[in-house]
Design goal:
Elements: E1 4-6, H1 7-23, H2 25-35, H3 40-55, H4 63-75, H5 80-93, E2 101-103, H6 104-121, H7 132-147, H8 152-169, H9 193-214
Antiparallel strand pairs: 1-2
């Protein structure tokens, strides 16, 4: 594959992200039982189903237009904070102007636009034991790789690893948002369900790109 992605590539990437999350649905709900309603896995299933559906269709549309539409579709899902943040991130990615293909640099700009949109929605930051603990380092790692001239495949690998480490680090954090914040130190020792979902999302994006490269 050339070092650009198209809507077809992006559709494949989100499909693999959905597969990763479906495979770990029970784990996500178990993690959410510690400080939440225990329904995060189910909510993420609905969210990813909608995302996959929204990404299908006309392949001649610009990437940013498709991302914008897909993000708004995800925002319509009854998935609580997870669908709100993920939908806002994807719709925000659409704020970056792209054509029918995107190189690594433009995708980094799109990720950054998505993160800015999320930061307007929530005051949560890395260290608060939320999705942001995986999302922020993933976007930053992708940007660093893109600025260093890395390929999209390698940049996404770095982003995926940063998201994984970010989610893993939440085991040592005390929750500061949502119902879990009332539990204080009882939230220590377990990973945040939302951060874990973001790590799975980026793992799927990366895996799909590597599969395409090796095909």
């Amino acid at each position: 594959m050339s070092d650009v992605i198209s809507i077809t590539d992006l559709r494949r990437m989100f499909a693999e992200a959905a597969r990763q999350i479906r495979r770990e649905q029970e784990l996500l709900s178990q993690l959410d039982c510690i400080g939440g309603d225990g329904d995060h896995g189910t909510a993420m299933l609905r969210t990813m189903d909608m995302l996959e559906s929204a990404m299908s269709g006309d392949c001649h549309e610009t990437l940013n237009a498709r991302l914008k539409d897909a993000g708004w579709s995800v925002l319509s899902v009854d998935g609580g904070a997870s669908s709100a943040i993920l939908g806002t991130f994807i719709a925000g990615m659409g704020d970056a102007v792209m054509g029918q293909e995107s190189d690594c640099t433009h995708l980094a700009v799109s990720f950054a636009a998505g993160l800015r949109a999320v930061e307007k929605l929530t005051k949560a930051k890395p260290g608060d034991k939320t999705m942001m603990d995986a999302l922020v380092p993933a976007v930053q790692a992708f940007a660093t790789a893109a600025n260093s001239g890395e390929s999209i495949v390698h940049a996404m690998e770095y982003a995926s690893e940063a998201a994984r480490k970010g989610a893993e680090a939440t085991k040592g954090m005390i929750a500061k948002y949502g119902r879990a914040r009332c539990l204080g130190e009882k939230t220590l020792g377990s990973a945040d369900a939302g951060a874990t979902s973001i790590a799975l999302l980026f793992r799927g994006l990366s895996a799909a790109l590597k599969q395409e490269k090796e095909a």
